[in-house]
Automatic annotation (TrEMBL), chain A:
Keyword annotations: Phosphoprotein, Phosphotransferase system, Sugar transport, Transferase, Transport
Name listed for the protein in its UniProt record: Fructose PTS transporter subunit IIA
InterPro entries per UniProt: PTrfase/Anion_transptr, PTS_EIIA_type-2_dom, PTS_IIA_fruc, PTS_SugarTrans_NitroReg
Transmembrane regions listed in the UniProt entry: none
The organism's place on the tree of life at top rank: Bacteria
Keyword Transferase annotated: yes
Start and end residues of each PTS EIIA type-2 domain: 5-150
Gene3D superfamilies per the UniProt record, alphabetical: Mannitol-specific EII, Chain A (3.40.930.10)
MF term (GO), any: transferase activity
Catalytic activity, EC: 2.7.1.202
One Pfam family from the record: PTS_EIIA_2
Automatic annotation (TrEMBL), chain B:
GO MF annotations in UniProt: transferase activity
Keyword Kinase: yes
Keywords from the UniProt entry: Kinase, Phosphoprotein, Phosphotransferase system, Sugar transport, Transferase, Transport
Enzyme Commission number: 2.7.1.202
PANTHER family: FRUCTOSE-LIKE PERMEASE, FRUCTOSE-LIKE PTS SYSTEM EIIBC COMPONENT-RELATED
Designated name of the protein: PTS fructose transporter subunit IIB
Natural source organism: Jeotgalibacillus terrae
Length: 150, 105
């Protein structure tokens, strides 16, 4: 299994120009809706914000990983936005974020073990400084995929 | 030294695995043997063996939820922190572990 199987060119956006957390989340959730990972944007966002309430999803180094389980997820996936400028976000190091990775995961994951496994491998990559550096410097979709390739 | 641990976050899809990766990297960098079990949405992975547990000098629990099978670590020295501590400052946490072990001897 390759982590890149989890990534979809259409749900990766570089040079994103969001000015706020809300804008960034909306933009990425729209990509997930358009490409049929989620079925309802408002309900999905409610579940994402419910997780935001519990604690910071900014993991430091300008990376945020908003996530939550939602009944409105049809297929496990991720949307990745590389924003042009830093936007305010609750984070562990007190900085804003430039890379936003929105996870879509359902509540019922029966039959989705492969995808869950890929997602855990993907999340692990985010604990790796080299991957983070590459992500922050990504200008094209291919750069983002390359960051997760090895 | 030999460090083992468990990572388990609230939702079980992101922080658990980031904490695992960061702790393992930080531990290895400091010259330790380290293995972190993950308890997430997918279930338990990288499960600690009885031998690993027996040989371990110390246990790190990076968890926001109840760790299942905690009784496996009975009689061991255990450090418990929220997952975000492992995500935010893994090197500091490993240092802390070293300090705790130094006090013991």
């Amino acid at each position: 299994m390759e982590i890149t199987e989890l990534l979809n060119d259409h749900t990766i956006k570089t040079n994103m120009d969001a000015k706020s957390k809300e804008e960034a989340l909306n933009e990425l959730a729209t990509l997930l809706l358009d490409h049929e990972y989620i079925t309802d944007i408002e309900s999905f966002m409610k579940d994402i914000y419910a997780r935001e309430e519990i604690g910071q999803t900014g993991i430091g180094n300008y990376i945020a990983i908003p996530h939550g389980k939602s009944n409105f997820v049809k297929e496990i996936g991720v949307a990745i936005g590389i924003n042009k400028s830093e936007i305010p976000w609750e984070s562990l190091d007190g900085n804003g974020v430039k890379v936003i990775i929105l996870f879509a995961v359902g509540n019922d994951n029966e039959g989705a073990q492969n995808h869950l496994k890929l997602l855990s491998m993907f999340a692990r990559k985010l604990g790796n400084d080299e991957v983070i550096e590459k992500l922050l410097l990504s200008e094209k979709t291919a750069d983002v995929k390359e960051a997760f390739a090895n | 030294m030999k460090i083992i641990g468990v990572a388990a976050c609230t939702v079980g899809i992101a922080h658990t695995y980031i904490a695992q990766e960061k702790l393992e990297n930080a531990g290895k960098k400091a010259g330790h043997e380290i293995s972190i079990e993950t308890q997430g949405t997918i279930g338990t992975e990288n499960e600690l063996s009885a031998k690993q547990i027996q040989e371990a000098d110390i246990v790190i629990l990076a968890a926001d939820v109840k760790v299942s099978g905690r009784d496996r670590f009975e009689g061991k020295r255990v450090i418990q922190v929220p997952t975000e501590v492992a995500v935010k400052s893994p090197n500091k946490l490993i240092k802390k572990v070293e300090e705790v072990m130094a006090q013991k001897q």
